[in-house]
Amino acid sequence: MDLFAPWHIVILVVAFMVLFGARKLPGAAQSLGQAMRIFKSETKGLNQDQDAQAAPVTPPAAVAGQVPAPAAAPSQQEQIDALQRQLSDMQAKNAAPQTQPTQPS
């Protein structure tokens, strides 16, 4: 047994025409098509991102047999100190009186 008979579809089309009018239906269909294209391209991009993450990239130095030295990462305390310096600099800039040029009357 079919879920929708042809006369069901005809009734739906007529109901949409009555509710939305013939002028608005093409615009709504165009918007729906654009939304579907955007959704499709985004899901395709997500799949490509997952594929790129799944394939590990070997650095050229590791291929040649050389192991690169790890970069020295700043400690957590050094990062906190740097952020506090930036914050105090920003506060000092905002606290300084800002002079605006006066306009002649």
Uncertain parts: none
Globally, the shape reads flat
Helix content: 55-70%
How much strand content do the residues show?
under 5%
What's the total number of strands?
A: 0
Oligomer: single chain
Largest sheet: none
Order of helices and strands: HHH
Question: In DSSP terms, counting alpha (H) and pi (I) runs of 4 or more, how many helices?
Answer: 3
Radius of gyration: 31 Å
Q: Structural class per helix/strand content?
A: mainly alpha
Mean of residue pLDDT? 77
Give the termini separation.
85 Å
Give the SSE layout:
Elements: H1 6-54, H2 60-63, H3 76-95
Structural commentary:
The structure is a single chain. With 105 residues, the protein is mainly alpha-helical. The chain has a domain at 28-53. It is 70% helix and 0% strand. The protein has helices at residues 6-54, 60-63, 76-95. The radius of gyration is 31 Å and the shape is flat. The model has no long low-confidence stretch (mean pLDDT 77).
Brief characterization of the structure:
By secondary structure, the protein is mainly α. Helices cover about 70% and strands about 0% of the residues. It has a domain at about 30-55.
List keywords for this structure.
mainly alpha
